[in-house]
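User: Some background: our group keeps a shared notebook of sequences we're curious about, and every so often someone picks one and asks for a predicted structure to add to the entry. Today it's my turn. The entry only has the sequence so far, pasted here. Could you supply the structure so I can complete it?
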Amino acid sequence: MQPHTAVQETPLAAIPPGALRSLLQRSDARGLRRLAGHLGVIAVSLAAYAIALSRHAPLPLVLLAAVAYGFGLVTMFAAMHESVHRTAFKSTWLNDSVGWFAGLLSFYNSTFYRHYHGWHHRFTQIPGKDPELEDRKPTALASYLVQMSGVPWWLGKLRTYATLALGRTASYGFLNPITGPQAVRSVRWQLLVYGVAIAASVALGRPYFLAYWFFPVAIAQPLLRAILLAEHTGCSHDDNPLTNTRTTHTLWPVRFLMWEMPYHAEHHRHPALPFFALAPVHRGLCPQLEHVARRGYLGLHADLLGRLIAKSPTWPST
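Assistant: Of course. Here's the predicted structure to add to the notebook entry:
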């Protein structure tokens, strides 16, 4: 099955072929610098969190340190996302290795996600085809709060990993007889790592896995949910890349840890662009985009909450 052809009838921003070829050039060096910076943030915030725990700091300070450290972990999802596209690095082996490791840290599986996400790009916002639409967007304040908690995400992870670990892939239309077994093996290895980490914590008599991995990811998960919910919520359900995806203006630290994913409409328009090329493309493409959240994630979610409370069917274009 092929996507609808409406996108071919839509005027799209033209990037001169020479400029596009230049922008498409990937770089191991730039990818490794971003990865080193991201891991550095995790290391520093982990140290602060560990000190807060060991010195029995006041609970608000411990929670603040846990959120900072956890945000570094959950945003490794973005490193995995870029690696799955093989735009994080020039070398395939680096993309595949870093992608799997980043997914491990953020409780994603890069092998499964590569095919799931490929289907999402092929059928973006097409009902019945885009697998991301299976996770329903909030339609009321209660469902918004539930989604922001991260609980549905955790339940979905448990269900998916259990299904794949048992070797069952038939329910995933984006997997085939070759990619299905690959995803099964990858998930089994990942679960083995988690199992070893849990067993080591039990053997040492310390809750290391819970305190230094699961809890920080869980407490920071709502921040990642808020970022990801902004990407397509309220956008058109068709294959027009100028209207079915949102770009969100945000602070540089968020863009850094999210590997420039807030430039999401640009990414969907040109998914082969490396992360560091998205900002230059944004400058040319922005005037043609229907959805640009210029007031950032806080402004976007304030608009969304107001819409949910008022039960309004409309959504602002900016």
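Suggested note for the entry: Residues 123 and 129 are 6 Å apart (CA to CA). Residues 25-310 form one domain.
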